[in-house]
Amino acid sequence: MTKTHLTDKKFSDFAIAPEVVAGLTESGFEYCTPIQAKCLPFICDGRDIAGQAQTGTGKTLAFLTATCHRL
């Protein structure tokens, strides 16, 4: 079986507002990348973090997901 995602962690696994998860799912985002899976628990709680990952790995999406959740 071929794996189609980088982690087994889904956005719906986090305590993110259901409206935000629905928007992510409608946009085709179901599974987190490794940097998202590591950062989201902290940034959704409003904590500051510093993360480093290659361009295109989803850092901005993690930031915006947490921002929309907190709004």
Descriptive account of the structure:
With 71 residues, the chain is mostly helical. It has one domain (11-47, 57-70). It contains three helices and no strands. Helix 2 (34-43) packs parallel to helix 3 (59-70). The radius of gyration is 12 Å and the shape is globular. The N and C termini lie far apart (39 Å).
Can you tag this structure with a few keywords?
71 residues, mainly alpha, 3 helices
Report the β-strand fraction as a percent range.
under 5%
Question: Could you tell me the radius of gyration in angstroms?
Answer: 12 Å
N-end to C-end Cα span: 39 Å
- State the helix count: 3
Q: Regions with pLDDT < 50 over 5+ consecutive residues?
A: none
Largest sheet: none
Return the string of H and E elements: HHH
Structural class designation: mainly alpha
Rough outline? globular
What is the averaged pLDDT score? 93
Number of strands: 0
**Helicity, as a percent range:** 40-55%
Quickly describe the structure.
The protein is mainly α. The protein contains 3 helices and no strands.
How would the blueprint of this fold be written?
Layout: H1 18-26, H2 34-43, H3 59-70
Helix pairs in contact: 2-3
